[in-house]
Amino acid sequence: MAEPAAFARILNVEDARRAARRRLPRGLFEYIDRGCEDEISILANRRRLDAIALSPGVLVDVSHPSMEADILGRRQPLPLVIAPTAVAGLVWHDGEIALARAAARAGIPFCVSTQSITSVERIATESGADLWFQLYVWKDRRRMLNLLDRAWAAGVKTLVLTADTAVGPNREYNLRNGFGIPLKASWRAALDVALHPRWAATVMLRALASSGIPTYAHYPAEFRTRLGREALADEVSLAKDVTWDDVRLLRQRWRGKLVVKGVLRVEDALAARSHGVDAIVVSNHGARNLDCAPGPTDVLPQIAEAVGDRMEIFADSGVRRGADIARFLALGARGVMIGRATLYGVAMGGAGGAARVLDLLSTELRTTMGMLGAQKLADIRRVESAQQVGR
Ligand SMILES: Cc1cc2nc3c(=O)[nH]c(=O)nc-3n(C[C@H](O)[C@H](O)[C@H](O)COP(=O)(O)O)c2cc1C
After folding, report:
1. Residue nearest atom 29 of ligand 1, based on CA coordinates
2. CATH code at 295?
3. Are the C-beta atoms of 94 and 202 separated by less than 8 Å?
4. Where in this chain does the entry annotate a coiled-coil region (predicted)?
5. CA 340 / ligand 1 centre spacing (Å)
6. Which of the residues 177, 204, 218, 276 could staple to 27 if both were Cys, CB 3.0 to 4.6 A apart?
């Protein structure tokens, strides 16, 4: 792993984002960077976070702040988890392994996506990270359960059911860019790749030379050929009939911790609790799915109050600064997932790039805590009557 110091000019997540934009073909960059439909929600997530003021306590000794957090029975040095992001393996060669290595170095879990380009077995063997596994429910539940057996055998102990993607999201820029999995050849895509020769050589040509055109590693082997894909299309398409019955099934079959991701209502949080779920992620999927969704910040306080200590609550969507992590914690989250920020990092420079982003976020969180007079995460408090500052 290139040492994070090699990225000395990258001073914040926005710098990493710009570096990723330079490196990646436009279709791929927009896939990771943008939102959905009119992209109202992505801006709104930013505004909502910015509007949360934190309350500084003065004259507190902050020479030894602790950012330690207890996440699902494990004490970690930081309250963070790297979020599941489909196709991380397209932004860097074996990008999922790179993300997992950065997570391992920071002592935090990495959540592998169902739609990962690298298999959970390889990520486990080659990273040594504490791996979580994110599940999209396939129509064929038998195949889905086989996939869970694979994840368990690879050493995964935490399963994350994503509940906020009942139907395919509307992302028009992907259609305009001709971007999708399986990757399709087009003049536009060829030009896009030709304009980004570093990415073409270090990601696409390496993939072609080793395992062929990159595709979803957890899908059955037949999925790699066109005919096989057509035959399987129905079985491994994302089910639209995912209900609490599936949560019941997963609770029976999964021996480890169970997390439901994408909860935005108090009653759904309480239902998760009553189904024996160990944690929820209050998330609007990084504003990628429902453009009129509330922000996690809008609902987190009510959910935290209703759930109390009976279930762990994590949050994500929009973290670009350590202060954003502090904001989510102040609203009641125990841990925070990081999606695009570490993806920009890995796109800019593999495991070292992702590690640089994690270093920046943790340094910013420590600085924020120092300014707030917070010796530990539980000391972070919001201003109760925060005015909407907007932008
Ligand atoms: C490129 C990309 C792919 C994603 N793929 C998945 C996925 O496969 N499963 C999932 O549950 N969430 C997925 N997400 C959502 C993230 O897990 C997370 O909720 C979101 O990125 C958090 O917002 P942030 O990117 O602003 O940090 C994806 C996000 C991005 C940016």
Report:
1. 85
2. 3.20.20.70
3. no
4. none
5. 7
6. 177
